[in-house]
Amino acid sequence: MKTLVLGLGNPILSDDAVGIRVVEELEGKVDQKEVTLVETTVAGLGLLDFLTGYDRAIIIDAIQTVGGQAGRIYRLDPEALDFTRHAASPHDVNLATALELGRRLELSLPQQIIIFAIEVADASTFSEECTPEVRRAIPACVEMIIQEINGEPRSITA
Amino acid sequence: MKKITIDPITRLEGHGKIEIFLNEDGSVANAYLQIPELRGFEKFCEGRPVEELPRIVTRICGVCPGAHHMASCKATDAVYHVDPPPAAKKLRELFYCAHIIHSHVAHFYALAAPDFVVGPTADPAKRNILGLIDKVGLEVGGEVIKHRAYAQDIQATIGGKATHPVCGLPGGMSKAITEEERQDFEEKAKSLIEFGKFGLKLFDDLVLANKEYLDLITGDIYTMNSYYMGLVDDNNKVSFYEGDIRVVDPEGKEVAKFKAADYLEHIAEHTEPWSYLKFPFLKKVGWKGLVDGKESGVYRVNSLARLNVADGMATPLAQEEYERMYHTLGGKPVHLTLAFHWARLIEILYAAERLLELCQDKEITDPNVRTIPTATPDEGVGMIEAPRGILFHHYRTDDKGIIEKVNLIVATVQNNPAMNMSIKRAAEHLIEKGKEVPEGLLNMVEMAFRAYDPCMACATHALPGQMPLEIIIYDSKGEVVQTLSRFVH
User: pTM value?
Assistant: First the structure.
């Protein structure tokens, strides 16, 4: 199964980079030919360009919820965020809307999309380092993704 | 195994807020826009070699990496007192035209058009690009995706990387383009011109032909008599990459024309205790609070401001459209905030025409794209018209080129006073005393803010792929009477 592992985030904005850090850790640990590792900072419509042509996509990103425990990992499917599609973003559409648009335009989008979201502590300070809580969650997330790639998904929390 | 259900709708942090305060009788007393702040960028840059900055600044936000890259390149040219060769400047401008198109297209089709085409008070579940294609046809979606991809391909080829360009260096560019690349760009530019015309036609048919929408655009709700600031070329035509900064007053008269390096003589920043963002104003006019008119130093940047300060567009098709807009809206300057959308469409056409001109320029494939800096670096200002308005990068280094101080003035911050005022004005007009405010009306308040295409440079790529915005209404005792989040539907 042609699989894309896509890490999202800003590499110089503390925990916002966690998706990118996870993909960096995966490099060298994943050697299947059909798996492609990619990091990017884009969102919205731009994500369609990356997702097109794969059977399966695993997306890793930061999330920030009220009272959320930093370092917690959530495994989501795109439907979990489906209700946000109507929302206008400051400059672009959200992921669910972009995917729906891509489907209607009959782009060859992945049949299966899984999202790993990691709760952040600080995503508003410029730094190349993640906070300790988030850094500690990276190995667990890497492990979850390797299992996901190998077809043994688990819903766990770090 | 533990399953956790999360509900990001009500639980997301780090969002922007519009707060509306009511008087005792239920009329609007005040309205404020609050945007969370990103911290420590200047400090992050200190101690790094200045030539690294063009690559670092592209990471400030995921929305306009191309604009920061170019402003930064120009600032490093200035720091090293080096003038790039002609082909390098043209190549940068070519790249930059593609960037403007890429950005403007997303804003218009994904954010602006749904308000008009689907309707400003329509069900929010339909008021998006999907609702747009339901109404106008699937092929619109295909055209948008195709032409955004064209603009992206051009940026990626010149920029050296898909999203975060690495092409610019002090004194020029890291590589030239080949004849094959030039031919490819030329074909894409031709198609982009057609797409630019298509956008204006769509605006004609669906917005201007609808009296209700035209009334909305020209009505009091979205009017503001401010100063305008924008970049013009030698002939006072709209320019994105290079030129002088021109300021016009609310009557359209030129009151200042200056070089980027002199920005501190013209722009000062006011602060308010309730906002992280500063409030830039024209120094020579002065800060008179959040009010419009000739006595107030509040100015606006972005598409309509660029058209208002200029004498026209430098390309023929865009010039026709420029004349048509001012003719339709009653002459210059236009103070109608929703006309920023129309101006944006004219700029897409201009950028596409300019793109084609540059692709057909004999010098564009010239391999000489770098002047090697030889002077001792010290201090410099770079400026560019970001899609959202003028962007300043100001760097000071030691004699080895190590950053000592960085100052950025971004477009959204320059529009911060105006955005607050536009929101308040819309709220005053739309919120009736003592009545529950329907979602549709709050969307119309938000439209006042959306016209500026604000980039909050934050959380734009934290799930769910955007920064949420909340509108909170308080009564005269400070109690929350109504809250609306973009996700609560």
Answer: 0.91
Q: pLDDT tens, B393-446?
A: 999 999 999 999 999 888 988 999 999 999 999 999 988 876 777 878 888 888
How many CA atoms lie within 13 Å of B157's alpha carbon, on the beta-carbon side?
Answer: 21
Q: Flag whether residue A33 sits within 8 Å of chain B, measured between CB atoms.
A: no
What span, in angstroms and rounded, lies between the C-alpha atoms of B325 and B469?
Answer: 31
Instruction: Name the residue among B38, B456, B461 with its Cβ closest to that of A41.
Output: B461
Query: What ipTM was predicted for this assembly?
Result: 0.81
What are the strands, taking DSSP E only, across A3-65?
Answer: 3-8, 35-40, 56-63
Which of A6, A12, A13, A64 is the best mutation test for B, with the most CBs of B within 10 A?
A13
Give the residue on A whose Cα is nearest the Cα of B41. Answer: A126
Provide the residue ranges of all domains of chain B, joining segments of one domain with +.
8-36+415-485, 83-223+336-372
Residues of A with Cβ-Cβ distance to B59 under 8 angstroms:
10-13, 41
Instruction: Nearest by CB to A123, from B3, B8, B459: name it.
Output: B459
Provide the domain count of chain A.
1
Structural contact between residues B81 and B170, judged by C-beta atoms closer than 8 angstroms: no
Considering only CB atoms, A126 lies closest to which of B16, B40, B141, namely B40
A156 assigned to some structural domain: no
Q: CATH number, domain at A116?
A: 3.40.50.1450
User: For the structural domain made of B83-223+336-372, what CATH number should be given?
Assistant: 1.10.645.10
pLDDT in tens, B223-245: 999 999 999 999 999 999 999 99
